[in-house]
Design goal:
Number of domains: 2
Structural class: alpha/beta
CATH class of the largest domain: Alpha Beta
Distance between the termini: 26 Å
CATH superfamily of the largest domain: P-loop containing nucleotide triphosphate hydrolases
CATH architecture of the largest domain: 3-Layer(aba) Sandwich
Order of helices and strands: HHEHEHEHEHEHHEHEEHEHEHEEHEHEH
Radius of gyration: 24 Å
Mean pLDDT: 81
Low-confidence stretches: 1-18, 21-40, 418-440, 442-453
CATH topology of the largest domain: Rossmann fold
Shape: globular
Strand order of the largest sheet: 3-4-2-5-6-1-7
Strand content: 5-15%
Helix content: 25-40%
């Protein structure tokens, strides 16, 4: 576990509002990546790449291919359709980006279309493609919502080689006839399961039907549920399936724990956990945009090194938030699942599921924000007594039991009294409810058995 080694303040007692020692931005550092034990012995020089690509990889400090890169690149260079399964943080962008750059035909474009679920991922993939194509005459444009469409239309008039876009905005440009798919030779669906989760399936199918039949299609996904398989069977030609997802999700590099806690005590538990762990970088996941903003406002009173990100923020603010987090300008990011998938932040050491995710796959992707590229990490999930079944579903999904944890001296349960009513105990944001009129006592209902946490 990485620890904060900056200048410490005087020791404060538990009543002090100072959350973390050294409330100053971290030094900007270049993270040192450890090499996973299962890294293949192949080198990029073994993958039949051009001299220009090898030079770009060397400048980008890509030393050896990750397993998915070593597996996908040779198949993609042969022109095969590929259904690739691997969790985020394993180098998927370069796995499809390198073959795209290597096989781009000359002439009027665009020649490649990469569909992604979020604006942030569109920017990230565009930047990665630009880095991998440095020194080559290749133009990549990202198109996504939240930005003026006129500026994107101007860029599309120059016939860029590669388009990275969200399905909704791609459909917008197709409707306006500012984007032609007639010259496409490669289509990539990145984070395909996430795109289907958030309702992009009709848009994706509409786009694929407009693409040339004689094309190469690559579908990359962390999970391959039946809807993904049906999509692959319908729109891909004899795809080769490659699976680089671990059988026991993140078991080697991520410790996974849970706390049992009443809703109103979550904030106090979070503060105590952050004090105990002293994370270098931490992402705290909430289920809703309102909950994210509210937790940010409260935690901001404890430390200056916290920001939040959610779907109601302007795109420029979201980009700055991610950029500043990567640059170590603050240490705690409170987020909805908008950053649960696809965003490449490689040095996160702590994940906190402040709210249990609605879907088990979202847990997988949240936890996947740490323990990336062989680094160690730890994840904690806050589970209320009513959420035992959701914890069980998560454990069944990952085929692993989470470890129960406790913090010394912390009582996770709300004590009911005249001052603290059962209604208060159900107030999950920790604020006291308005006073209610007393009603005559009613016969208590029969208590149902709940899973012991």
């Amino acid at each position: 576990m990485l620890r904060w080694v900056g200048p410490a303040r005087e020791t404060a007692d538990d009543n002090n509002d100072v959350l973390l020692p050294g409330d100053v931005p971290l030094r900007e550092t270049v993270p040192t990546l450890s090499t996973p034990e299962d890294t293949p012995e192949k080198k990029f020089t073994d993958l039949n790449l051009s001299e220009k690509m090898l030079a770009a990889l060397k400048e980008a400090r890509y030393e050896v291919p990750s397993p998915i890169q070593a597996g996908v690149i040779p198949l993609a260079l042969e022109g095969k359709d590929i259904l690739g399964q691997a969790r985020t943080g394993t180098g998927k962008t370069a796995a499809f980006g390198i073959p795209i750059i290597e096989t781009l035909p000359s002439g009027k474009g665009p020649h490649a279309l990469i569909l992604v679920p979020t604006r942030e991922l569109a920017v990230q993939v565009r930047d990665e493609i630009a880095k991998l194509s440095k020194g080559m005459s290749i133009q990549t444009v990202a198109i996504y919502g939240g930005k003026p469409i006129k500026g994107q239309m101007d860029k599309l008039k120059r016939n860029p080689d590669i388009i990275v876009g969200t399905p909704g905005r791609v459909i917008d440009h197709m409707t306006r006839r500012s984007l032609s798919l007639d010259y496409l030779s490669i289509v990539v669906l990145d984070e395909a399961d996430r795109m289907l989760d958030i309702g992009f399936r009709p848009d994706i199918e509409k786009i694929l039907r407009r693409c040339p039949e004689q094309r190469q299609t690559m579908l990359l996904s962390a999970t391959v549920p039946p809807p993904i398989e049906r999509l692959a069977n319908r729109y891909m030609r004899d795809p080769v399936k490659v699976d680089f997802s671990p059988k026991n999700i993140s078991a080697d590099t991520i410790e996974q724990h849970y706390f049992t806690v009443d809703g109103p005590k979550k904030m106090e538990l979070l503060v105590r956990l952050l004090r105990r762990e002293q994370p270098t970088k931490c992402i705290v996941f909430c289920r809703t945009k309102r909950g994210t903003e509210k937790l940010f406002q409260r935690l901001q009173k404890k430390t200056k090194l916290v920001r939040c990100i959610h779907g109601d923020m302007h795109q420029g603010a979201r980009n700055r938030t991610i950029s500043d987090f990567k640059a170590n300008k603050y240490r705690i990011l409170i987020a909805t699942d908008v950053v649960g998938r696809g965003i490449d932040i490689s040095d996160v050491t702590l994940i906190v599921n402040y709210d249990v995710p609605e879907y088990s796959d979202d847990y997988v992707h949240r936890v996947g924000r740490t323990g990336r590229m062989g680094k160690e990490g730890v994840a904690y999930t806050f589970v209320t007594p009513e959420e035992g079944n959701q914890l069980t579903r998560i454990e069944m999904r990952i085929d692993k039991l989470l470890i129960r944890d406790e913090i010394e001296g912390f009582d996770p349960y709300v004590k009911t009294s005249v001052e603290t009513s059962p209604t208060h105990a159900r107030d999950t944001d920790g604020t006291a409810p308005a006073e209610e009129k007393k009603e005559p006592p009613k016969k208590a209902p029969r208590r149902r058995h709940r899973r012991a946490l």
